[in-house]
Amino acid sequence: MNILILSSSKLRHLNLFLEFKKKFNNVKFYTETPKKVLNYSNNNLLTKYFKNLNQIENQIFSHNKKDIYKLKKEINYSNNINMPSKILLNTIENSDLIINFGTRYIKGYVIDLLLNKKTINIHMGIAPFYRGNASNFWASFDQNFNLIGSTIHFLSKGLDSGRIINTLSPKLNDMKLGLFSMYAVKQTHKFISNEKYLKRIINQKGYIQKNNLLIRYTKKIEFNENVLRKYYKFNFHNNSIKDLMTKNNYLKTKNHKLI
User: Fold this and answer.
1) Which pLDDT score, from 0 to 100, does residue 38 have?
2) Which pTM does this prediction carry?
3) Phi and psi of 251, rounded to 5°?
């Protein structure tokens, strides 16, 4: 099976490549050339939040760091996923399975190519309730802790709107809220890289999302200092997920799984 992963270049994105490389021989990984880090002032809440996020990411994926960095020579770069090189176009055409995770919004003729290949998308957030940017953050913000997790769905022209294969939630543990959200990424990678699972879902149709269940459809611009100020005032970000989930229950649907 020829597998293509389209993703970004953070540690959490490269971890997906590692999980697939452990189990499959023919895996190619394309990422866009890393962008410059936004220059926030040292004292603002955005800086505090993203510094903490980087620390959490390092903590969750630290045990895989050496193995991940060994794969760096095998990473292929594209300046813009929507303007692919001939090599990437050929790779798409010759792939049996394509996984998309954390790329920019894909459009134009590229999305048509990927839809034709039945590309699978990993959305960190539980659709149809939370779609768009930073969905697990917004689930936490709304205190819907039972809706922290991920969605495996077929890629679509609408953002995170494709037919759902599975929604996933990590099993409860003693982790703090921030760690738990990143742990969901790690567990999702392990789940989706299972060969038996992939063979089973390739020919599935998935189920259509019910738009009336949507709680938030968020864009990057909505994630700002005012929102973070409210978030930190809630003062639950340092609580364990077990304590926070006492008033919430996991989804109980046929396609929802605990991982």
Assistant:
1) 56
2) 0.94
3) -60, 145
